[in-house]
Amino acid sequence: MIFIETKTLSYQLSNARRVDLLTALEEKSIVPAIRSARLKCFETALVGSELVLEMETELATGDDANSEDHVLGDLFFHADHVFFLVFRELQSPQIRAGIVYESGTVEPFRKLDSFCSNVRQVLAAQAAPNEVPAWQHETVPMPSGFKSFVTKQNSDSLYGSVRRKSTSDRARAAAILEDTNARVFLRHAKEAHAEGYAAKMLAGDVAASNESSITMLTDAGLVEREVQISCRRSGHALFRLPNAHALAVVTVSDATCSECGSPVADEKVEEVIAPTRLAVSLLEDGAWLISRMHQLLRELGVPESEIAIGPSESDGYGQMMANICGESFLLLARDGDLTPAFARWAIDLEIDTQASHLVVVATGRFHRHAEMLLNNHARQRDRSGHDFELIVADDAATATEELRQAFHRVFSRILDEQLCDLDGLLGLSARRLILTKFKLASRVVEPEVVHSYSEPAEERQPLALSAHAAAGAWGTYSAEESHLQDLSETYVDDSYVGNEGPSESVVSAIDVKPE
Q1: What is the DSSP string of 57-88?
Q2: Strands 389-393 and 307-309
Q3: How far apart are CA 487 and CA 489, in angstroms?
């Protein structure tokens, strides 16, 4: 899984100064890959390296009309991340810097800040005082449909819902409920418990065939074992107790059966299982499916702040939206059949939110009429000129894999927009080069890299930004929160230089997939 973050600097550089900038960065051991390849080409052309720099200067500053496109940017490769610089002169002079990094990259935000600080220091050394402005973050606009979806939710209930769904117990239970047999067993246990024949769930063949399931569900907190006391004559369940200790208290008392009048100690005592409150809440309206989808989105790297969960309307339909790189994903789930009524509801909600991607998950049978309604709606959206995608899945795992590929397509478009200017310099797609680099790097187990800092280890401050990066979160971080007030390191390869301050960042996430 990889991410991207960018910054911009409103500043104009001639080709000669761009070359000087790349040269100065290379002196700081931040090696520009495109320039290195170009110099190697010059060396080959000159059959030696004595006049390589002179050829670079001549080509960059000559009278040729194409010389202005000689240095459009560069890439800087590291083990687990890639920096890029792009110089643009379209509407206004601008330098764009960014980082493409893996989810396991240590302190990516600080690395980008350090890289940008290095670039600005070089520019400031070549310019008049205070001529070089500060870096600014590029922000991805939030889709209006996603924004309206969020504002329609009750903030208190939404916060509570997300908080509950993010707990480890609930996430683990939702993962177990992906198993159809587990859900069927829990529903039978719930009905048996309500009707008073819960003891049969642990009797004979039923107990033997489901013993492993019962143990797994108990460990996950979905069922609990109780003690049930029943009348020996009528078989009517009198009451249930949480454990044998409570049974001992009852049996030594003078309590009698309300049916036959016999002492409770003489009545039938059986062990039964009962669904917990967690199980009941997850099974109600298919809430487990939305909980599971929420957990899987977080595992894909989608930040919590870019996920909105809609309230259940007691019709068995769950709703959730995600904002991925400025594109809205509407996820609708039902633990049951994909019926025409569910399909119409999904279409109406998609029209209301104007989502770019509609994801429908139903665990039961797919009605042909429902599929026809969804496919017709997708075709109409395409014919009307909208970039629209429909995903229909029969379980959370399939939906997650489809979402992984959809995120990859979105991210590829974003990376193409950021780096398309460099394709001509490379002679190949910069996007494909970077994605292939990460794909191949994932096959090699790299040893842990220990970064060297200038200050003693015992004096280092804790870095809050790494925790935020690992969780996929972003926001505005104050110096007090991140403890990054006094940074004076120098960036050498994977070491760091001073920081212009913690930053707000917009992050997009995607798994690396082969082309």
Answers
A1: HHHHHSS-GGGGGS--EEEEE-SSEEEEEEEE
A2: unpaired
A3: 6
What b/e sequence results for 349-383 when a residue is b if at least 16 CB atoms lie within 10 Å of its CB, and e otherwise?
A: bbeebbbbbbbbbbbeebbeebeebbeebbeebee
DSSP string, 290-356: HHHHHHHHHHTT--GGGEEEPPP-SSSEEEEEEEETTEEEEEEEESS-B-HHHHHHHHHHHHHHT-S
pLDDT tens digits, one per residue of 168-196: 778 888 888 888 888 888 887 777 766 65
DSSP conformation class of 4: E
What size, in residues, is the chain? 515
d(CA 124, CA 126): 5
CA dihedral sign of residues 44, 45, 50, 56:
negative
| Residue of 61 and 440 predicted with greater confidence | 440
Kindly give, in sequence order, each residue whose CB lies less than 8 Å from that of residue 68, ignoring residues fewer than 6 positions away: 15
C-alpha radius of gyration, the chain, whole number = 31
The residue with tokens 């959809």 is 406
* Structure confidence by residue, pLDDT tens digits, 465-481: 333 333 344 343 343 34
What six digits make up the tokens of 366?
A: 């797919």
Query: C-alpha 356: how far from its chain's center?
Result: 18
Instruction: Give the containing element (helix H, strand E) for 23.
Output: helix 15-27
DSSP 392-460: EESSHHHHHHHHHHHHHHHHHHHHHHHHGGGHHHHTS-HHHHHHHHHHHHTTS-PPPPPPP-SS-GGGP
Q: Tell me which residue of 80, 125, 76 sits closest to 98, measured CA to CA.
A: 76
Q: What is the distance between the alpha carbons of residues 206 and 70, in angstroms, rounded to a whole number?
A: 76
How far, in whole angstroms, is CA 345 from its chain's centroid?
A: 27
Contact 361, 395 (CB under 8 A): yes
Q: What is the pLDDT of residues 390-435, one digit of tens each?
A: 999 999 989 999 999 999 899 889 899 889 989 888 888 999 999 8
Which DSSP letter does residue 261 get?
A: -
The DSSP secondary structure of 106-163, one letter per residue, reads: SSHHHHHHHHHHHHHHHHHHHS-TT-S---EE--PPPPHHHHHHHHTS-HHHHHHHHH
Angle 172-173-176 from CA coordinates, rounded to 5°: 90
Residue that has been written with the tokens 């049974």 in this structure: 247
Q: How many C-beta atoms surround the C-beta of residue 44 within 10 A?
A: 11
Which of 16, 77, 70 minimizes the C-alpha distance to 38?
Answer: 70
